[in-house]
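#structure-requests
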Amino acid sequence: MDYDAVIVGGGHNGLVAAAYLARAGQSVLVLERRAEIGGAAVSFRAFPGVDVRLSRYSYLVSLLPKRIAAELGLDLQLRRRRMSSYTPAGETGLLVDTGDEERTGASFRAVSGSTKDYQAWHRFYASAARVAEATFRSLTEPLPTSAELRRRIGDDEAWATFFECPAGKRCASCSRTTSCAESCSPTR
């Protein structure tokens, strides 16, 4: 049989592309090497004999724009999880609880011994949220130029942090006396 399009990979992006093409009247074949479709948007049993499914990045479904869900006629309800992450650290661990800032702060203090890391993380997380809000619509529209995206963000420090300065370089080069925008500027 002949197909108008062959999608290699039955992950969430491939499935969305296939659905749009099929709705446009194209004949589509989706090829997936695994026994299940969904790619990173599914959970899996990580431990044999333990009936617990863990995320394989299925939280990425929260990036599914409402516009795509509506256009494809998807009847789904997304729910936000309260526990954002847990990272083991020695005898304790770092818990990020999106419903309880005090609990998250206490977890940072238990791991680091001070409030400094929590305060820095909180500032970073707030900055990331502002960048995400300013850039999210680019998922469903033509990609803006870097100048347009930078204008949307409207924050030179955030622009440098998330787009121009690799995280490792940022951590190694930023200090209290030099802003990240200065330490990671393309002219340095």
